[in-house]
Amino acid sequence: MTKVTVFFIAMTAFLLATSCTEEAPPTLSYQERELVDSLFRMQVDTLKPRYDSLCTARFDSAVQFKTDSMLKVRTAEIQKYLERLRQETNQ
């Protein structure tokens, strides 16, 4: 192999090896973290009443839906069990 080929292979291997590493996550200073935290709290305080009212409005229908789903599953399990009992007693 020529020196150029060896150099090309070495550079390719080096570039491939260094391109696969992940960048370090960004870090925030203390002041930046405080700013982000205060902005987050302001947004949460603004949105919390809205989300609480939506949760309260949907609660009854969500409980009814889950109850209906559980009832369907249990009814199907009972039917399957009864069918198995019928098959065992008929044999």
Can you give a write-up of this model?
By secondary structure, the chain is mainly α. The chain has a domain at 47-91. 86% of the residues lie in helices and 0% in strands. The chain contains two helices and no strands. It has helices spanning 3-19, 30-90. The longest helix is centred in the middle third of the chain and has 61 residues, at 30-90.
Q: How far apart lie the N and C ends? A: 81 Å
Number of strands: 0
In one word, what is the shape? flat
Helix-strand string? HH
How much of the sequence lies in strands comes to under 5%
- Give the low-confidence spans: none
The Rg value, from CA coordinates, equals 32 Å
Mean pLDDT over the full residue set: 86
Structural class: mainly alpha
Number of helices: 2
Largest sheet: none
Helix content: over 70%
Features of the shown structure:
single chain, 91 residues, mainly alpha, flat
Short description:
With 91 residues, the chain is mostly helical.
What is the topology?
Layout: H1 3-19, H2 30-90
